[in-house]
Amino acid sequence: MGIRRIPALPEAVRTGAARRLKVSDHTMRNARLRLTSLGLFLAFTVLASTVLPLPPAAVDASPSPDSYSYRFLVDEDGFTRVEVNYSSPGTGSSWVFVPKFSNWTHAELSGDIEESENLTTGAVAGDDYYFYQAFRFRFKSAGTFLMTVRFNMTLGAVVIEPRGVFYSPQIGFQEAGRASAEVLLPQGDTIDAGKAFAVGRASYGPSQLKGNYALFELYENLVRLQVEFSKSGKPEMRTLKRGIFTFHAVERYVDLAGELLDLYDGVYNSTVELFNVTLPSVDVEFFIPDFDSILTVGGYVPFAGGRVGDIHLNLFVERFAEGTLEVVALHELVHHFLSQARISPGSLLWFHEGMAQYVSVEVVDALGYEGAKTERESLEEAASGLIKRFYYLQYWSPESPPANMGTYYAASYYVISRLAEAYGGLDYYARFFKTIGDARISDDDVLAYHLSLAANASVARVLSGWGFNVADLYISSSLIEEARLAVGGLNPLFQPYKYLAGWLYRQGVASLEEGDARAGNLYLAAAIFLARWAPLLTVATVVAVVAAVVYVLRARRAKPKPVLPDATAVLEGFGKPDEVLVKPPKNGGRLGTIQVCGNGKLGEVSAISSRHQRTSNNLRS
Length: 621
Fold this sequence. Notes:
Blueprint: E1 2-5, E2 7-8, E3 19-20, H1 38-51, E4 67-74, E5 80-89, E6 92-99, E7 105-110, E8 112-120, H2 121-125, E9 132-140, E10 144-153, E11 157-160, E12 163-167, E13 171-172, E14 178-184, E15 190-199, E16 203-204, E17 208-210, E18 213-217, E19 222-230, E20 237-242, E21 245-250, H3 254-275, E22 282-287, E23 299-304, E24 307-308, E25 311-314, H4 324-340, H5 349-366, H6 370-384, H7 405-423, H8 425-436, H9 444-455, H10 459-465, H11 473-488, H12 497-513, H13 517-557, H14 567-570, E26 579-583, E27 593-598, E28 601-605, H15 613-620
Parallel strand pairs: 2-3, 4-14, 21-22, 22-25
Antiparallel strand pairs: 1-23, 4-5, 5-10, 6-9, 7-10, 8-9, 11-12, 12-19, 13-19, 14-18, 15-16, 15-19, 17-18, 20-21, 23-24, 23-25, 26-27, 27-28
Helix pairs in contact: 3-4, 4-5, 4-6, 5-6, 5-7, 6-7, 7-8, 8-9, 11-12, 11-13, 12-13
């Protein structure tokens, strides 16, 4: 398992990857170019033809259709001599791709070129190829016009015994009647029949294949050749050291390894300040990717047992824009720093890759390399086409690489770079790593919390706006302190609200401890609300209670008293009473009976309550 570096290519966007590694067919580092004179080239060609079973060059000398014939001679170290032969009857014009940033020559073997110019590839082919230009020429000849174009490639093939892979420059020419290309490897090398293709709009194998030789009929005018081969013997290894860095390199690539070690050693102190950690040691080596991913993997570091392993760098990246290999090398180094800072790539791969993208581009750009600018432009272009809902990044892990890897790289770069723009660039991330201390970060909630501390603002809200599912622990931490002070500062007289606020505070802390940040935040917010309004709520409550008591008392006092009927009116018609008798109510009832006797008449009035017995008694007296 590994943390893979997946770039995208401008010439063949097969993976849609975030890194757009522009293919170079002749390195821009002219100091490392091994230019060979025409005489030495011819001598080598003659010698090779006498020793090796080289078929005749596919130059069509017939007066009928024009033709292009490519020949690639590869030496033991992968250095490749390129020869392009063109033939055409009579007078006419054509164009062919040639290097833009390195030397090339042309020679007329028959006929003359009347006029020529160098154009962009887009002007003749419709697409721009960064490292090429189109040589357009007009010619005349009394018979057959013959012309040869020659140039060299330092890394036409990469070789780490027992494997080697040849990857041609971009073949481009004006469509002709016939076109072919042949590849000749050193004697003793063997081409893998299942791994030799011409790659254009379609892929197809060679028309002839024998040992170290392959011949391709070209059915398109814009193609590349990719050929894997085996070599006998073991690689001659060298070990180079700079400080904590050790590079294990094949002898033929020692100079390149030394340059990368100088880069690592030169940026180490500044990266230590950025990540706030030091590294014990780092081992680095070159590798050749699988045949199908030769240009889609820039580098990787294995991840196993909770730690990252050695840095592996794809040799083919050296053919890309100057500085691209440096970007890849620093990208992989950032993984080591992040792991040392206790940020797990297993659960936070999006943060690992986004930081590695952003930091490597920023650092290499500051060193003045063109490749860093190209990288940034490519990443921004890829990110601009994304829907800004990045929830899928949280499910990205080394164990489950997605099919559309480029989308994930572009999205992770977008998140990291936009946070940097908002909060202070590399200085923001330097503050972030200082806030971590000895903490181990293994989930997005804690990561967002420390990012928020460095920003002095809630980053979780920003991430949530991009579709992340994160709890805002930054707000929770401030809420805890705010709630604690608010509840603790309440006067005990403000009851029951002091008690309720304290209960909500305790529930909020308990929820946060259990990992339920949302519930915890709600409890804490409610506790703060009650604590802030407790004085007013208490006064309001006291006022309400007092008002209720007053209302009840006044209601009781205002209740009307019962009225005793006038005894004279009651007894009217009975004559002068001789005797008034009042009988108490029966069985505890409220109505008694007044019995009146007079003039021999007896009457009863039942409308007088027993509470008036005293009055009745008075009447009797």
